[in-house]
UniProtKB/TrEMBL annotation:
EC number in record: 4.3.1.17
Entry's family note: Belongs to the serine/threonine dehydratase family.
KW Lyase (keyword) present: yes
Pfam families: PALP
EC class (word): lyase
Catalysed reactions listed for this entry: L-serine = pyruvate + NH4(+)
InterPro entries named among the record's database cross-references: Ser/Thr_Dehydratase, TrpB-like_PALP, TrpB-like_PALP_sf
The name this protein goes by in its record: L-serine ammonia-lyase
GO biological process, one term: L-threonine catabolic process
Cofactor(s) recorded in Swiss-Prot or TrEMBL: pyridoxal 5'-phosphate
Residue ranges annotated for the Tryptophan synthase beta chain-like PALP domain, each copy included: 2-284
Length: 302
């Protein structure tokens, strides 16, 4: 669904420019994944899919479960052990079968692929053109609402958000910098950008579990090498602090994966022109609660 576009007075004043928040946290499933997953599920439903198979660390699985329930198509989601119980509960509430397997998304994904057949269609959480088409509509809505961005700030996990926003900007003939933010423990894109190779991390660590892809999709890496992408990394503490600041300032609870993006504004890590319109994708996250954030505070203080 179309989400609100809000000018943040607090963040605009703090960064001496116009900060526009695209509130993807307002999606029914709590994250931008509803756009990407919604697009691909509808496409495959039109092609006769009888079942959806997916793997996820949280948000993508919740959206596949939601879309399957809406389309009356059975869903199986394989999640790694790092997935929160809240995320699993949300998938099951949408009548999805949830299988917990492996220590990382890669392990979960390998099992999910073994279930795929001619009628049970695999829904990749971040690597498919249908997904990017869905995300690109974010830029359509921003333009419709009268804002032409001079820069975009977003978080990167597997790369579908970066891929879709890049496509949306191209659709409108916009060539503006995209600031791609990761936590230090999940920096698969930033590491690949520095190496100039599409490499895979040995491991991913930290509290931003929904960013925990060891390797971004090839399309996201290509974009990072051929377009104006600026890579940034933040600490878990910075991401977590931004979650609490955003809750105070905008009455919206987001997960650390989204806090990573917001932290570069709260900590004023980028300089913008005073007239700049900076679009921030508040990607949201349904697999987090206040108690979990408070637990992170305790854990990081040890």
């Amino acid at each position: 669904m179309k989400t609100p576009l809000i000018r943040s007075k607090k963040l605009s004043d703090l960064n001496s420019c116009n900060i526009w928040l695209k509130m993807e946290s307002a999606q029914v499933t709590g994250s931008f994944k509803e756009r990407s997953i919604g697009q691909v599920c509808q496409k495959y439903a039109q092609q006769g899919a009888k079942k959806f198979i997916s793997s996820s660390g949280g948000n993508a699985g919740i959206s596949v479960a939601y879309m399957g329930n809406m389309l009356k198509i059975p869903v199986t989601v394989v999640v790694p052990k790092t997935t929160s119980q809240q995320a699993i509960d949300l998938m099951q509430q949408e009548n999805a079968e949830v299988i917990v397997h492996g220590d990382s998304w890669v392990d979960a994904n390998d099992l999910a692929l073994s279930f795929v057949n001619s009628e049970a269609i695999y829904i990749h959480p971040f690597d498919h053109p249908y997904l990017w088409e869905g995300v690109a509509k974010i830029i359509d809505e921003v333009i419709e609402d009268g804002v032409q961005p001079d820069a975009v700030i977003l978080s990167v996990g597997g790369g579908s958000l970066l891929s879709g926003i890049s496509q949306g900007l191209k659709n409108h003939g916009l060539d503006v910098p995209i600031y791609a933010v990761e936590t230090q423990g999940t920096a698969s894109l930033n590491t690949a950008m520095k190496a100039k190779q599409h490499i895979q991390l040995d491991q991913v660590t930290g509290i931003a579990t929904t960013l925990a892809a060891k390797q971004v999709c090839a399309n996201a890496f290509h974009i990072s090498q051929s377009e104006h992408v600026v890579g940034l990394t933040v600490s878990d503490q910075e991401a977590l602090s931004a979650c609490f600041n955003f809750l105070d300032d905008h009455r919206t609870l987001v997960e650390p994966a989204c806090g990573a993006t917001l932290s570069v504004l709260y900590d004023q890590k980028i300089d913008f022109e005073p007239t700049a319109n900076v679009l921030v994708i508040v990607c949201g996250g349904a697999s987090i609660g206040l108690q979990k954030l408070l637990q992170f505070v305790e854990d990081l203080a040890v």
